[in-house]
Amino acid sequence: MSVTIEKITEPLLLGEGPHWDDRKQALYFVSIKQKTIHKYVPASGTHTKTQLDGRVGFIIPVDGTTDQFVVGVERKFLIIQWDGEEGSKVQVLKELAEVDQEIPTTRINDGKADPKGRLFAGTMGHEESPGNFQKEKGSLYRIDRRGVVKMCESVSISNGLAWDLKEKAFYYTDSLEYKIRRYDYDVDTGDISNKSYIFDLKKNNITGIPDGMTIDTDGNLWVAIFDGGCVLKIDPKLGTISQKIQIPAKQITSVTFGGCNLDVLFVTTGSMPIKEEQEPPCGATFMVTGLGVKGHPNVNFKLP
Fold first, then answer.
1. Spatial separation of the C-alpha atoms in residues 99 and 64, rounded to whole Å
2. In terms of pTM, does the model score above 0.90?
3. Taking a C-beta distance cutoff of 8 angstroms, is the pair 301, 117 a contact?
4. d(Cα 170, Cα 187) in Å, to the nearest integer?
């Protein structure tokens, strides 16, 4: 089967945070700087969105509900209610936490629920000019029944998150390191330890920075390369690239597996005029089929 890449939405300024909801057979994602949350249903081709009051880093359904989500807005983690309809009003039900109160210039970026439904999400430094960020101002946090726990600090751009239960591993990206980290992961507690690096973009002559990522059932990482126009399939044990998927956009922001059989790779992108104008289809969300692999079901957030 040959690999096919299909544009499924119109361009956004900074599409991010894709999450496949198996229950609804729908893809949720955000456009950070446009302050919007989005829903795409492949079966009907329906794409809806609505506005929030701040820059939004991610959207994850709340487990056991049909219309509630946890979102990261500016520096706050919020529970919201949205019916998924175009332009319908969002109701904020609860504020879970506000982080980085001592550094009010940061904002929440990527976030996911771990295999137990705990929220892992991080912050990033202020963008002083297009593509120029304050370094080491962010942190990675975990939210569970014990409250808010700071997992890592001195992070520049908190990004890709993935877990491998078989290997008891947590993979994580601080984009401006140009590397991918590996930690030992305790599924019972959510704790991480023993940081190491499993891949270095610069040593592999990869242009761009590592952004969002996901993992397939074989344990391979799929990493979005911002400013690199591609998604890399990486073997974390060997630290090698086993496949490179060129996407018709330069700013590749994140990836997740979805579809009925979890064998479709959804790819979000940006169209920010950082060094030059990004013409369509830059900024669109894409659907990649024919990869011959499957992902794990995305986990919904379990309220503490």
1. 26
2. yes
3. yes
4. 10
